[in-house]
Design brief:
The longest helix has 17 residues, at about 115-130. Helix 2 (about 35-40) crosses helix 3. The chain is globular, with a radius of gyration of 18 Å. Helices cover about 60% and strands about 0% of the residues. The protein contains seven helices and no strands. The two termini are about 35 Å apart.
């Protein structure tokens, strides 16, 4: 997948629905990009999109680097703002509060694997709280 709004190219024809159809394991477990490449390599004869994923591997690895938030390059003054928010406004970053708002706004399933996503995001935020 890519991101049109950020001009990040993706595999043509591979959107969220097709991705979950080809990789149903994404629904209930953490899957790495390498896992996707391995499965695509094994099944490349079964469906053209598996082949496309294999052929687009280099770009997908670049996309992963572009979108990886585990170690973002954040300017020092912005880090200070993040620390202040984490210290002074904990309710804004509470997982239960987020889930409540998420459900109230009727966002439905717009974030697949919401619980896994929340755990990752909040663990990243905790790293900046400790710095």
């Amino acid at each position: 997948m890519g991101d049109d709004s950020d001009n990040i190219p993706g595999v043509k024809g591979l959107g969220p629905k097709k991705l979950f159809k080809l990789f149903p394991e994404l629904e209930n477990q953490k899957v790495t990009l390498e896992d996707i490449f391995t499965k695509s390599e094994e099944k490349r004869q079964e469906h053209g999109l598996y082949e496309d994923i294999c052929n687009f591997k280099k770009q997908l690895l670049i996309n992963q680097q572009l979108m990886d938030l585990s170690d973002p390059d954040i300017p020092e003054d912005s880090l200070e703002e993040i620390k202040q928010v984490l210290t002074n406004e904990p309710n804004k970053l509470d997982k239960l509060h987020f889930l409540k708002l998420y459900n109230e706004d009727r966002l439905g399933n717009s974030i697949p694997n919401t619980e896994i996503w929340l755990n990752e995001i909040f663990s990243y935020l905790q790293v900046y709280k400790l710095k």
